[in-house]
Design brief:
By secondary structure, this protein is mainly α. It has one helix at about 5-35. The longest helix is centred in the middle third of the chain and has 34 residues, at about 5-35. It is rod-shaped, with a radius of gyration of 17 Å. The protein starts with a helix and ends with a helix. The relative contact order is 0.09.
Length: about 40
């Protein structure tokens, strides 16, 4: 495997992981907001 292929793979993995974390955090915030409202 060439170095640029490894870098591209790492970037893609990092982006997908980051977007999943952002999505989970967003869901958590929405759930908290729902609970807070009377």
């Amino acid at each position: 495997m060439h170095r640029w292929q490894t870098d591209t793979l790492l970037s893609a993995t990092f982006i997908s992981l980051e977007s999943r974390l952002v999505g989970e955090a967003f869901d958590l915030i929405q759930a908290t907001e729902k609970q807070r409202k009377p």
